Amino acid sequence: MTTPQQLEADLGWALLAVLRSYREISEALLAGLPGGPRGYHVLTTAATGEPPSQLALARKLGVDRTVMTYLLDDMEKGGLIERRPDPADRRARRITVTEAGNAALCDVQRALRTAEETLLEPLDPEERPVLRHLLYRLATRADPQRTETTCTEAEKLTGDAPAC
Amino acid sequence: MTTPQQLEADLGWALLAVLRSYREISEALLAGLPGGPRGYHVLTTAATGEPPSQLALARKLGVDRTVMTYLLDDMEKGGLIERRPDPADRRARRITVTEAGNAALCDVQRALRTAEETLLEPLDPEERPVLRHLLYRLATRADPQRTETTCTEAEKLTGDAPAC
DNA sequence: TATTGTTATACTCTATAACTATA
DNA sequence: TATAGTTATAGAGTATAACAATA
Question: What is the phi/psi pair of residue B47, to 5°?
């Protein structure tokens, strides 16, 4: 029979399986959002700090810049983001999140928080933050610039009311 | 500023980022294998226990059965697997791993083991098995039948020599 | 000359539908 | 009638190439 060490050897399989579960439970939540899961990542990235260029967004999400054009087209039509000219470089466009975009982001974030806890339910309550912490440290190692929007932060940037 | 709790909130992002790193470092390893990452998963699944049907494999990998046909075509051409008629159901085919397939599986598994440790290097040595364990428990929750091939087991099944 | 963003095109991947053979 | 597997076709998603504007 296989030992626990051997059972836990296939890290890639485990990662993929967990991500697949995550996608299943979050799919419904993100279905209404223009751009889906990617649209959500664009919102979280664009809502924090300096409005990023399209190219910076594309690199951060790991997609081609042409894909980013189509994605932002949808999100702009949906009223979630705006393309503003970069005063320092007239080739580039800065992606800013609209009020509606911030509202949508907050809604989705709250729903995702619940969905994530559902995903982690098989673990003991004290194990859940451990997994989050370890995963996050690995993830930021791969992308050290990463910072995350919180609802309150997003609202500060737009000068918006609470609601979140 | 964001607190650690807030920073670690986006589980989906962290999972995806880590999986992306994993794919980067394993890409080269799996490039030569017919079927790539999926071919590897087919090998690990088919090398353990009863040779599965194509449909069972498709469900386990989360792909359409037509995709499985093409995937197995490539792997059969590459000499890694064989399609054998199921004696109990002449519609179905049992996928068995050839000797060459087992050898390839062992090679890839050994290389992946190293690659995984590279991925986990940012963590302290005692944290690495913790992450593996937590991820694996979540993953098996989603797919409770999961068992994993070990090289020695695969060799037992084919009556093969060690080499791994 | 290189870079940002857009558009058109081609390619890859995946799913749908129709078929054969079994059950 | 339903299921396992195959094949052909259509669709979605993605990348490549060419372009305009700017650096």
Answer: -80, -5
